[in-house]
Each structure stands twice: as C-alpha cells, then as structure tokens.
C-alpha cells in the first residue's frame, strides 16, 4: 500500500515493452495475441496505480472496462485465427502475404 | 495525495512488490521466449497472477478476483483451446528471419521507447492531476464503491460494453462457422459420412 507509484509504473512500462517486443518478434498469430494481452495488462497495472495514488475509483472502473474489451477482442481475434487456419493451415503470419482468400 | 506516501514502507509491502514484479516480468519474458505456444500460454497465466497480486497490494481486491476469473480462467483457457483445436502446439522456428535484421531492430526500438517512457514519467513527477474526481477509493468497501460508480457515472460505457460483447459473440460465431455454400461448391458429399471433421452433419 505504501509502495511508491514510481515502482509500479516502471514495472508497467517494462511489461508494456516486453509485450510490444513480442508482437514485433514472434510470428505465430496466437503468441502475438498473448503479447497484446501483456500490453493491456501493463495499462491495467498503471491505471490501478493511478487510482490508488489519486484516491479516485475511476481508474479501477476503467480497468473493469478494459477486462471486458479484452475478452471481446480475444473472442473475435481467435475466431479470425480459426478462419484463416481453415484456409491456409497455418497460424504463422508470414504465410498471409496475399489478400485473396 | 502525500498522506498515503508519507507513511513508512513496511518490509512485507516491499517483499510483495518485488515478488509480484518478478512473477510479472518473468512470465512476460517466458511468453515471448517460449517456442511452444502452450508454454507461452502457461507463462501468460503466471504474468496474470502476478498482476492480480499487484492489484491486491494496491487494494483493488475486486479487480484482482476479476483478473483471475476473467483472464486466467476464461481468456487463457480460450487460448489453450484454440491452440489444441488447431494443433499448432509444435515448436516455431525462431531462427528463420524473413526480414533480415528485423528482430534486433525491433528489440532496439522497443528498448528506446520503453527507456524514453520511463524517463518521461520520471521527468513529469510520475503522476499528476486532481484527486477523487469520480469517487474516492475505499479499501474496506471496494466492490460497493466500484459498483456504484459503474452504474452511475459509467452507465453509458457499461451498456456499450454489453452491446460490444453481443457483437463480439455474434461476429465470432459468424467467423468460425464454415459457410455452407463454399463447402458444397467444390465437392459433392459422396456418403452421409463424408462431412468435414468437426462439423455436425445437418
């Protein structure tokens, strides 16, 4: 409770950086989705930290909505991955260099 | 604002912080470094539990529970289900680089951006702004305050997320189901058993 906000914000920034690096480095679409989840969680951690140090519950409410949007995003994203896998039999994004289905 | 920060840090607080930071960052590195997608998903669970630990430490108890239930309980299971449904749980060859020099460039750019972000936050005093605009936090009545705020100040956003979830579910069903016309176009089923795997005969 008495940890400075700066410590949590540094952890949040590092987590966001690791997630961004994962999206850029990895080529499997599923792992790229997981790295997007890492970045969303970094934002959540920063929002909860701000809610604590500013004594404002608005940050926590925003985290609640981020949870819902993340669930919706994963549902649609995995649906797209399944649909692409039916066509291409691959979940590697480098194989998707053509727009035609 | 300074009232909370003025109180002394206790040893358990520091220990919990470093434990959660180690779990979060170790799990995140595992997600990126694991060659097997299943291992990535398991490392993602570690990161999510570390985040929940950090939420508890910052007195967001309801969000910690929701984090475990929604993320570790639903989203990661969905990931694992799709991984095993598609059968892509074999190792990905990370040695092949389609774009030469893309990976070192990505790591360098991300390190520069993250360092710049931390330096920017440090230069700005880490946080600023008015306190208790929506409602003050109350650690002893976490769920009550959050619920009241969501159903008053954020009611429109709450209803919009309900609509978003319905759209997402319908969209996912439409994406994942095979269109009947394309199945029948290329080939005629010879027998009644000649239906694609995973699709119920209709």
Summarize the SSE layout with pairings:
The complex is a heterodimer of chains A (101) and B (202).
Chain A (H helix, E strand, L loop, with lengths): L4 H21 L3 H25 L4 H31 L13
Helix pairs in contact in A: 1-2, 2-3
Chain B lengths: L1 H5 L4 H23 L3 H21 L3 H26 L15 H22 L18 H9 L4 H22 L3 H7 L16
Helix pairs in contact in B: 2-3, 3-4
Q: Round the mean pLDDT of chain A to the nearest integer and report it.
A: 86
* Quaternary organisation: heterodimer
What integer value in Å does the Rg of chain A equal? 17 Å
Q: What percent of the residues of chain B sit in helical stretches (DSSP H or I)?
A: 55-70%
| Number of E-type strands of chain A | 0
Give structural notes.
The complex is a heterodimer of chains A (101) and B (202). Chain A has 101 residues and is mostly helical. Chain A is built from three helices and no strands. The N and C termini of chain B lie far apart (64 Å). Chain B has a domain of 138 residues: NADH-ubiquinone/plastoquinone oxidoreductase chain 6, subunit NuoJ (Four Helix Bundle (Hemerythrin (Met), subunit A), Up-down Bundle), CATH 1.20.120.1200. The N terminus of chain B is likely disordered. At the A-B interface, α1, α2 and α3 of A face α2, α3, α4, α5 and α6 of B.
């Amino acid at each position: 409770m008495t940890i400075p906000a700066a410590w949590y914000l540094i952890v949040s920034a590092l987590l966001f950086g690791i997630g961004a690096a994962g999206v850029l480095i990895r080529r499997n679409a599923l792992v790229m989705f997981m790295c997007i989840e890492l970045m969303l969680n970094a934002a959540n951690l920063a929002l909860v930290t701000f809610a604590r140090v500013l004594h404002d519950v608005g940050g926590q409410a925003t985290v609640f909505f981020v949870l819902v949007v993340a669930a919706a995003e994963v549902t649609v994203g995995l649906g797209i991955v399944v649909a692409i896998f039916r066509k291409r039999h691959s979940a590697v994004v480098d194989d998707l260099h053509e727009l035609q289905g | 604002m300074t009232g909370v920060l003025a109180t002394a840090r206790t040893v358990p607080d520091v220990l919990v912080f470093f434990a959660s930071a180690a779990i979060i960052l170790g799990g995140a590195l595992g997600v990126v470094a694991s060659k097997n997608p299943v291992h990535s998903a398991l490392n993602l669970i570690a990161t999510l539990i570390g985040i929940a630990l950090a939420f508890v430490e910052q007195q967001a108890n309801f969000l910690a529970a929701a984090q475990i239930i929604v993320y570790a309980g639903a989203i990661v299971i969905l990931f694992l289900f799709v991984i095993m449904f598609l059968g892509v749980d074999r190792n990905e060859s990370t040695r092949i680089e389609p774009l030469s020099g893309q990976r070192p460039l990505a790591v360098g750019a991300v390190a520069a951006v993250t360092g710049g972000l931390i330096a920017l936050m440090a230069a700005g005093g880490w946080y600023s702004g008015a306190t208790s605009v929506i409602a003050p936090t109350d650690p002893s009545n976490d769920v009550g305050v959050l619920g009241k705020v969501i159903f008053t100040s954020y009611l429109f956003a709450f209803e919009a997320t309900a609509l978003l979830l319905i759209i997402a579910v319908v969209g996912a069903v439409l994406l994942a189901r095979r269109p009947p016309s394309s199945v029948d176009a290329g080939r005629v089923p010879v027998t009644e058993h000649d239906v694609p795997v995973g699709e119920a005969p209709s």
